[in-house]
Design goal:
This protein is of the alpha+beta class. It folds into two domains: 122 residues, Alpha Horseshoe (Serine Threonine Protein Phosphatase 5, Tetratricopeptide repeat); 231 residues, Beta Barrel (Porin). The protein has seven helices and twelve strands. α2 packs antiparallel against α3, α2 runs parallel beside α5 and α5 runs antiparallel to α6. The longest helix is centred in the N-terminal third of the chain and has 23 residues. The protein is rod-shaped. The two termini are 62 Å apart.
């Protein structure tokens, strides 16, 4: 036992010594910068780089100072590199400068060298990873392919009226090139519309309907004016949908969705798509860049393809007599085959988590 203590105690002391020694070796970058700035003002560019070198090569040290100080360190290193005939090193330091201060182009100083300005103007600092929220309205385009009603009427008609719905979501965007990025998100979407019926017996009836789902869009974006304050863009991709409405599945008639209805519990709608949970997305928008964030106005068209063998088979029904009582949906008032598309208009706020320089 005594020998074990004799072994462990020196190990603990050694670890403590190494930790203290490691912390002691972390340079004081704020102090080094002030000293280097004095040397630069005296025209001693070589000494400036020697003074800043421990910070330039020590990422841990840079974490102990503000972003503004980091930007000043790399600016001063770039200026000193130009004065000592090292343009490649100057370009590298300017790239690092823009990561810490992306808007430096708008805040250039009077004593910035001409070659420094030329290198700076050849580069573009853009958000590399963004996280944002968006909210807006949607306008559905609904086509009533077929309606089957249990109203006993010799003459009747059915129609749909679109109403403005809404969506809320969270998105993340990753930049890959100067103009291309990939955006993925998740959100809640609610489609609203009105289903109208008229018969010789019942007269006119109007039912306010709602469809709710979780939507997961994955979009490729092309920025038309990368690096500027205003950034118009085009986008395209796919959107996955997972219905929050009740769903039944029949062996004979496929899947069916129950819409939320204001005037009846029994309205039933089925939506015709080739791939039931996926739609094509096309659109665009414009963003306005703030210092560390951006605001966007976004427009998207969501297209669900027309029915095929995968869709519900209610088109085989000619009337309610064709529906066995064993089917879950046999108690409904109306069965509607609906083709659904919609336009989404939203406003978003995105925060820039980090920058990338091109």
């Amino acid at each position: 036992m005594k020998s074990l203590k004799t072994f462990i105690l020196p190990c603990i002391l050694g670890i403590c010594f190494l930790s203290v020694n490691s912390n002691a070796q972390v340079p004081n970058c704020s102090g080094n910068y002030e000293k280097a700035l004095q040397l630069y003002n005296y025209g001693m560019a070589d000494s400036v780089l020697n003074m800043l070198e421990p910070c330039l090569e020590h990422k841990k040290a840079l974490k102990n100072v503000s972003k503004e100080t980091c930007a000043n360190i790399f600016r001063l290193a770039a200026l000193a590199s130009i004065m000592t005939g090292l343009p490649a090193e100057a370009e590298s330091y300017i790239t690092q400068l823009l990561k810490y201060q992306p808007d430096y182009k708008n805040n250039m100083r009077d004593d910035d060298l001409e070659e420094f300005r030329m290198i700076l103007n050849s580069k573009s600092a853009q958000p590399d990873l963004l996280l944002g929220i968006r909210a807006g309205a949607n306008i559905p385009f609904l086509n009533l392919e077929k309606s089957i009603s249990d109203y006993d009427a010799q003459e009747s008609y059915y129609s749909l009226d679109s109403k403005i719905g809404y969506q809320l979501g969270i998105d993340i965007e990753k930049t890959f090139t100067k103009n291309l990025s990939l955006e993925a998100g998740a959100g809640f979407t609610q489609i609203l519309f009105r289903y109208n019926t008229r018969s010789t017996i019942e007269g006119i009836n109007a039912y306010d309907q709602s469809i709710a789902f979780i939507e997961i869009p994955v979009l490729v974006k092309y920025n038309l004016n990368a690096g500027s304050k205003f950034r118009p863009y085009l986008q395209g991709g796919i959107s996955g949908k997972f219905s929050l409405n009740d769903i039944d599945k029949s062996d004979d008639f496929g899947k069916c969705w129950y819409t939320g209805s204001s005037s009846s519990e029994f309205i039933l709608a089925t939506f015709l798509t080739d791939i039931e949970n996926i739609g094509l997305v096309l659109g665009g928008g414009v963003g306005y860049n703030l210092k560390n964030s951006s605001i966007r106005l976004d427009l998207r068209y969501i297209h669900n393809f027309k029915s095929s063998g995968r869709s519900s088979k209610f088109d085989d029904i000619s009337g309610y007599d064709d529906i066995p009582s064993t089917e879950e949906f046999s108690y409904t008032n109306d069965i509607n085959l609906i083709n659904l598309k919609d336009i989404q208009i939203s406003l978003g706020y995105f925060y820039n988590l980090k920058y990338r320089v091109f």
